[in-house]
């Protein structure tokens, strides 16, 4: 990007969430190529962007269907023309009327469940419904959150409640979210294999018990990028890969230069004796996510870059109030004085801050500013709420 | 609140941000009474709620004017009929056209500055503007963020740039935000006095130099509630007191029963062997704010309560993914197994989670559900973005 082409970043109000469209498209293309090579379908998780423009780019690259984390996402993306949607948070029966309304309007919305109570509620609900539901069973392959482990009796119990109750069991899915805690290719590849094998095993147990189970869906950004084989898997899900972030950098699945989301900010003051530069990106813009604090490299509230995206090595956003960020040089992890901060970063200077966690930072903004390689900026709106 | 009156909480989608209107009005009344007794005006900071209904209650209780942290708040509250507005983040000249547009439409918007560079920019801007601006100077009384310390030469330098340049210096303001790090009445009262004395001293230095300085504005929720005298102060600002939260509980300025904001959530599953209850309030609902992690009592991602608001002692939201929260019993700070979680919290159970930081949690929601003591629920919308 040439200096002329980033001049548009001087013309908009700050803070603003900037998407580097070139980087984003490259991230999307790389993941899709990888999935194609592994012979599986790819169903991106749209909770990261909650943005129709981003998801259209994923579908144009070859994605088949989407994954959502809220019914609002399902409703919004269905309104934008997408029909093959997986709602990947275990359902509670009180949400079924909203699910059914989407199905009746032609949305091929799949729901998931990981317990007998909700499965029984689904069967009960379907008895008086005039449109069938499709349910996938959530499998726990790494102990980090929800799901039924592959060998548990509950797996077949839930499958039988649904199947015998006349509800279609469409598949099994798992999410090895503990991959975010790893940082070597070996460990990631091992977890990807654990995720694959566990989910395939769960599908096999269901099939052996006479319960159809067509789909085997796995994924997280790190395991998707580390998997060496995906035998038995039919589709992969991942979300944050479209933008990447500093947490993913520390996990080892992207470089700093792959990160496509940044927060545009303006210098509003200094505390010269402390070497502090005060910027208008506080936690309301960056989010309170401190995901790198437990990783090998702590990026504070974010990595400052110049306007053209070059990281300012040795500087971090070391603190954040609601609308104030504190940017300072860091020396061996401690803030250090810097006599020259006023001269180096005068009031009005614009910078870009790479976020710890793209899903959390994006959520702070009603819209993205999509920066094309030509310098053109387009507003891409995103959803908020449930 | 009787069981009948909280039945409305069974009828709305979760997660939802619930305001206990009775508690909120009590918090607002207590603060206003305190400010009246101390003989100062009160200008609430509306960044906490970003909600016209909440701010109307503050004004009805006696507040005079509002404080905002973004120009979007200024524009939104001006559109709702409020005119006396202080934009309390140091201005950069690139924002002045937006400020001027509000002034021209009749908004008595005051801006603040803490450096010579921006002050010179304001003077330059005003030379060709057809409407005057009013500027307050930000004073640093506790070293936690922005502002000029009371004895610094820069204070008079900035004052002279503005005054000699024909721009009205309307006052000085300070915010002792380091009060959030304290937890005894003695320390809070001492910081309140430091905040008062420093800001009054800055005003005096300006006046002694022939620069008018009518307003002396101080405040943070903890110092406002701890101040024993406010001689020389003309107004106080505070924000989070309207809702309070677990951080303020740990600071010692409210009880658990004063907290007026909670997140309504539904149990969606369990990991029985770990004693985990999975709920649909993850960090997207609670925010990533872990403000109590450095305090004397760490509340994890929040304090679970029953639907009527009774805290479930011994339970915390110990973890959070984007749309999943992990609720568990805690024993001496460590999660402990609980054989009975499925029986105690069946799938579909609704709970309320008190947040660490009301400003951060509120920001995750497009609207509040205002719960009256009658059980009536009203939707109060809130602003998002800049």
What's a concise summary of this model?
By secondary structure, chain A is α/β, with parallel strands linked by helices. The first copy, chain A, has helices at residues 21-38, 52-60, 71-79, 96-104, 116-127, 153-164, 185-208, 221-226, 246-251, 283-286, 341-344, 358-362; strands spanning 16-20, 41-42, 66-68, 84-87, 108-113, 134-139, 168-174, 215-218, 235-236, 261-271, 276-279, 303-305, 315-320, 325-331, 334-335, 350-354, 367-371, 377-381. In chain A, 31% of the residues lie in helices and 23% in strands.
What does this structure look like?
Two copies of one chain form a homodimer. In chain A, α5 packs parallel to α6. In chain A, β10 and β11 form a beta hairpin. Chain A folds into two domains: 141 residues, Lyase, Ornithine Decarboxylase, Chain A, domain 1, CATH 2.40.37; 221 residues, Alpha-Beta Barrel (TIM Barrel), CATH 3.20.20.10. In chain A, strands 1, 10, 11, 12, 13, 14, 15, 16, 17 and 18 form a ten-stranded mixed sheet that branches. In chain A, strands 2-9-8-7-6-5-4-3 form an eight-stranded parallel sheet. Chain A is of the alpha/beta class. The model of chain A has no long low-confidence stretch (mean pLDDT 96). The radius of gyration of chain A is 22 Å and the shape is elongated. In chain A, 31% of the residues lie in helices and 23% in strands. At the A-B interface, α5 and β10 of A face α5 and β10 of B.
